[in-house]
Amino acid sequence: MEQVNAVVTASTVIRLQQQVRTILMEDKLLQYVATLVNETRNNPGIYLGASPRASVAVMNCAKAVAVMNHRDFVTPDDIVYILPHVLRHRIILTPEREMEGISPDEVIAEILKAVEVPR
Predict the structure, then answer these.
(1) Per-block average pLDDT, block size 10, for the chain (119 residues)?
(2) CA angle 61, 44, 47 (to 5 degrees)
(3) 58/77 Cα distance (integer angstroms)
(4) pLDDT score of 2
(5) Which residues pair with 73 in a beta bridge?
(6) Residue 24 DSSP class
(7) Is beta strand 46-48 parallel, antiparallel or unpaired with respect to 92-93?
(8) What is d(CA 44, CA 97) in angstroms, rounded to the nearest whole number?
(9) HSE of 70 in the Cβ direction (CA atoms, 13 Å)?
(10) Are 118 and 78 in contact (CB under 8 A)?
């Protein structure tokens, strides 16, 4: 414990959480997130897709990315960036895809290519 140093205080974490809650996200981006997560439940290479809670996690993480980039709004790029990080452990590939050596990130990339990015 002598070598472990705090990098932020509890009050800083709370302040940042509150800041993330204030970030704007357009309806079309909320729909984009919902569509992407829904596609994990309809993709033939995925045995078990992401839950609706995953949509909330993607939304909150995209807002956090916006904060880190000094913006008060989410962009489609924020969602594209964060999606694999949020979903890779929330999906289970079919045995066939696993035997092919396909990773969850590759399937998520396929989904990202298939879903139109809102403008």
Answers:
(1) 86 94 97 98 96 96 97 97 98 97 97 96
(2) 70
(3) 12
(4) 80
(5) 24
(6) B
(7) antiparallel
(8) 9
(9) 0
(10) no
pLDDT value of position 59: 98
Partners of 46 in beta bridges:
93
SS (HEC) of 45-93: CEEECCCHHHHHHHHHHHHHHHHHCCCCECCHHHHHHHHHHHHCCCCEE
Backbone angles phi, psi at 93, to 5 degrees: -75, 160
Residue 113 Cα distances to 20, 76, 116, angstroms: 27, 13, 7
- State the pLDDT at residue 118: 95
**How many whole angstroms separate alpha carbon 63 and alpha carbon 20?**
6
Give the span between the Cα atoms of 54 and 88, in whole angstroms.
11
CA gap 2, 82 in Å, rounded: 34
Q: What share of the chain is helix, strand, coil (3-state, %, to 5)?
A: 60, 5, 35
